[in-house]
Fold this protein.
Amino acid sequence: IDYENEAFETMIHDVDFVLDCIGGSYIDRSMKVLRRGGTIVTIPSGGAEGIEEKAAALGLTGARFMVQSDGDNIRELAGLLGSGIIRSYISAIFPFDQIHAAHLQIETGKTRGKIVVTV
């Protein structure tokens, strides 16, 4: 299914579980494909407010997945990055005076990788 050009919510139904990685309007659209008793978990925080209540009103379970890191996690990731075991992908680099453009890029929901703002 090409989610950019097709209304996926009209093409599939009775799904047990949705892991939403886009957020925004896709949360509500994704709820339409779930069977009663199904579950949706959304990773992006934008637009996810009230997902638990919205889902419950439809006989579904909804949750936001939030990450909380600590210094040990960050040091371990830094080590993996430094050794090349994992690599980050930088989609675009913006100077600080173009931070508005950086935000606009992120808000498209189509950014692949990370956006970097240099100070």
